Amino acid sequence: MVEDRTILRHPEKRNKASNPILRKPEWIRVKAPIGKTYTETKNLIKKLNLKTVCEEASCPNIGECWENKHATFMIMGDTCTRACSFCNVKTGIPKPLDINEPGNVAISVMSLELQHVVITSVDRDDLEDGGAQHFAKVIRAIRTSCPNTTIEILTPDFKNKPDAINILKLDPPDVFNHNLETVPRLYPTIRPGARYFTSLKLLSDIKIIDPNIFTKSGLMVGIGETREEILQVMDDLRSANVDFLTIGQYLQPTTKHAPISKFITPNEFEAYASLARGKGFLMVSASPLTRSSYHADTDFKKLKMARQENQLDMKN
User: Fold this and answer.
1) Superfamily (CATH H level) for 2-14+29-315
2) CB within 8 A of 235, min separation 6: which ones?
3) Nearest-CA neighbor of 269 among 219, 215, 305, 212?
4) Backbone phi, then psi, for 5, in 5-degree steps?
5) pLDDT (average), residues 199-224
6) For residue range 242-262, what is the model confidence (pLDDT) as tens digits?
7) Is the distance from CB of 119 to CB of 153 less than 8 angstroms?
8) How far apart are CA 300 and CA 306, in angstroms?
């Protein structure tokens, strides 16, 4: 507990070292966001006092996604109770939950006419249920206002919050996503507040509770892992019956964050995707700019089709 309090009071302790940011290769550079629809989306989110992971985590795909009216809403504030060395979301003591947030998210979903929405959050270890009830309220608000919209949630690990999974069981999403982020060996430096097998068990438990929920997880590469370690994580995820795997290049937000060890080439990503499909994932998205919610709307449609095809193959 002493360590946690120190991190909360001194966010700069995330990483004392100054790590130079490497120049990005050609295959990672993206255009600056300038379109009309991008501006409209930005203004709507600001008007309703909402946060998006697109902005808070400095996602490189923000221009493309917002131009297509696709935003990933980040609930429960913009301040995280953990200090992961890869993440650009600020660390500190969060404000109380906004009781109007579920309704405002639903209004935005309706205004943007979203067919599929992704809801994520900061870690809220200060809350008794880790924020599970707030996730449930957001899901209910969207279901009420936009009954035809499918919902994907990207959650924290709810470590030491035993009631969280039972709360979510009452208001299940269409897709449950929780990212492992990296290989077990790197957790002490990359995800110091998390535990690899806690995250893996969460994904497994969700599938046991409701086999119809699609489960999803994501990995960063180029942060110091080995190929063999990535393949082992793939096997672990398949043991937990995870349906969908995303793999993307880690991009260092600032000099105080973990350094990039390597830029993975597009060909290497294609090789990872091929290996993952061979291990039995229903869907795999692997590319330098792949992120958890990138193309989530079209990927959800593909995911449903893949399950149907898989079920037909099992019958034949």
Assistant:
1) Aldolase class I (3.20.20.70)
2) 279
3) 219
4) -65, -35
5) 96
6) 999 999 999 998 899 999 999
7) yes
8) 10
